[in-house]
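Q: Two folds, back to back.
A: First:
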Amino acid sequence: IDKFDFFVDEELKELTDNIVETNFSIVITHSPPHGLLDRLPGLPNIGSVSITNLIKKIKPRLVLCGHFHENVGTATFLDKTIVFNPGAIKDNSYGEITIKDGKIETKVVKV
């Protein structure tokens, strides 16, 4: 899948070296982390290992991603991080996120 621009691990590491874990952080990225919402028919997991490593490091509460329109939905990583691919309006769906009292709820809305 070399038609997409991407960061190599070293470049992403340099960009994120000074980011630290907080009580409540949100990461917004185009690609999903490796192993979550990243499967396409006939292919192995093709998400970003760099993003997975970033999640392990800073432990965000929410990761918003997309890229793979076939993988709309919600997954949980390490029992703390919610990974949400809300879909694309061009594909007749979008996402809603509710954050209340530290609890996060995600919902895919079909239009």
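A: Second:
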Amino acid sequence: MPLYLDVYFWNWTNSEDIEDHDIKPSFDELGPYRFREVRDKEEIKFNRDSTVTYKPISTYYFDAEGSNGTLDDIIVNINLVAIGAAGKATNMEYKMKKIVSMGLNMYEETVAIAKTAGELLFEGYEDDMVLAGKEGIVQGFDPADIPFDRIGWFYMVSTP
């Protein structure tokens, strides 16, 4: 039986109006972006107690025919790095808040970000603030807490 993952996005159509509190955010639903999931098993072990253990592996293949859009579609979405860094800074002391604020400004992080569907999903995209945090350059962020070098909803999940 085939397994599918359907992903929908909300494209933020008026993100440039974020500062105008009289204008409500506007969104268009995009998708589905359909992926066929193929499951497999690795590290299969037959145990002495007559059980079997294994590591499940899933690989996702883009299904262009079952999708309403392509992985090259540009989508304006929330900038997870900027929102995450600002959220973490709310519980920091004043000096650390200023350092995070300077980092957000230095790396030109904004509330919205425009990326392709492929980048937002499996490919991921580079972000200078994440790379700086991973290198230990940004104070207040432990490099060990950043196990990835790209941003994406399913980045590091298997695709061909």
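Q: And?
A: The longest strand covers residues 27-46.
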